[in-house]
Amino acid sequence: MNLSNKYNFLYSFILYQSSGSISALNLQANPDCPCIDADLVHIHTNRIKSHDSCLDAKIEIDKFSNIQESFCYPEDYGVGCSPHDFNIEPFCDKQSDLPDFCSKSWCYVDQEKCKSSTMTYAKSAFFPGDDLFYSYDTCGFENTFKEFSVTRELKGRTLKVGIPALFYPDHYRLDENGDPIFWSQEIDAGVGDLLGIYPDYIRKLAIRGDFKVEFRSVSPGSYVGKDWTSWTGCVIDVGNGILDMCAGNFWETSERRSIVHFTTSFLNEMYFMMVPKPKPKQDLLTELGLIFKPFTTQLWFVIASVTFLVGITYTVLGSHSKISSTTRISGTSFHLCISNTYFAWTELVQGADKSDKKTVAQRSLALSWSFFILIIVAAYTANLAAFLGSQSFVFDMENIDDCLNQDCLMCHTTSSVLNSVVESMYPSLRRESYDNVSEALDAMKNGHCDALMLSEYNWNINKMVWRECETTFIGKPLFSFKVGWPISDSIAKSLSFFMSESLDNGEFTRVLDTYTPPQNCNLFTGLGEIRRSIPQLTVAAMAGPLIILSLGIVFGLVIKFGFGYGKEVSPSKASNRDENICTDPFRIDDTSNESESSDIERTNTTKLSYIDDTLNCSELSGTECIHGNDPFHQNSSALDLEFMIEEISREKMSVGTIY
Questions:
Q1: Residue ranges with strand state E in 109-234
Q2: Which one, of 635, 650, 502, lies nearest residue 570 by Cα?
Q3: What is the pLDDT of residues 180-202, one digit of tens each?
């Protein structure tokens, strides 16, 4: 109600209180949905014979009896915007505790004009035969009469509520020892009050609707000797007027709806296929393959390629003297490339750059290479630990289609509704029914059944079926049922109203939670070979380190060829003579015009001199010799010396060969 209408109502209400006449009230209706003129409202309305000035209002006081009573209403009832129900029987003639609608203004409106407006209006039920429509909205008020009409239907009543059986934890009693009775067709068995999810929930609804409940058993004639259970029997009792409603886990089906109405649905019960949980797969090949699982195949290929590239780049960035093709030693470049690639692999495996004898350009590459190694090793270690701690399972059946293809035997609990649904959806499925879930689980455990149909709701609330957590759901839901309560027409609207209000406030969820034990089984649905969801690292995940490494390579090449910093950085300084020997063991003049034989001889002499200088260098420095301009290898070793000695011998035997 807007502010102007508030003032209109207060002003008109004061006038009414002072004058005692409804006609003194004069609120303005919305022009888009106007009130009907006074002389046109009750043209066809019946009058009470003993009082010609009284309109004969027919009102149903008792919704259960369906009997209408006559009440004398004034001629101007519903004419213009006024609180017409104030001080009018049968609902607003009390001195206290008046319904909210009694003080709100409304009027009978022109239906044709209201159709094109935004105002809400409804058909009147007080004057049967008159085509009258009323609206609170056009007078600036909210229609609370509809809610009052719905909620008053149950007030003060005692509802006959059917319970199909004692079935823990839906509805049960305690035995003499104080333990719950899990199953009994006799609902009066045991001691104390009826307990469970649904008795507790309907008691909360009774508080909301101000009504009482009386729990009753299902009449034997509605199900004994029939092809259905007492649950369907309870539905039949409601349809026959024996019960007002049933409380429990009742699936809403088309067959049952043809018998009786259902309340608002408050649960969706989904059925899954349950199978024995397989033992972890632990064959040797699977376990050995775990060391490669942290990275994808593409990432392993990139890492290998990058390592070879780093080795080649180390070679390019090394310090080499300029040697012509006629004086270069055969196989030296290939030997140097392989050696540097080996060192790159060594650094990758060891997780660090171990050599401090690198040129400035090589050190630029080594910095980014070390960072790349750090990230790769850390990521691999973390993901490997996750994969080693996971388990792999293999299922014989992945879904219901596999069960059909393998001609498996499916077990489920006895239910006429369940039989009908499964038969229509999977007509070729071999099935066998059991009285309860425990018997069906035993049959599957003993190998009699290959799989079991079970609802997630049944699993969650029934801790007994968990056992040793040896079973699991697998695949997608097979089907589902909406859960509601069968209810008589006379109370359907009212009880559904209170249920909707209760569900919006989460009341049913809170009741359900009190009967749901905490899960201690790792229940999961899966397909085929299942491993915990551990993602492999991809090339995209390593994009950052790869970019940084690429920048290191580019920067090293710029230093080498752009600025000419190709010499090694020596960790110690020797005398000029020793330094010349260690860092520049030999020089070759490419411009010499001597004959080829002289070139070969001079080259051999140079190699021998290099060997002597290397030995002298080692004796002088006491450390590994550093050859800044070594065309063969940066770090001299016994293998290098042996290689050159053998090559000189071959050269002497091959006179005339050009290197």
A1: 122-123, 133-135, 158-163, 166-167, 172-174, 183-184, 191-195, 212-217
A2: 635
A3: 999 999 999 999 999 999 999 99
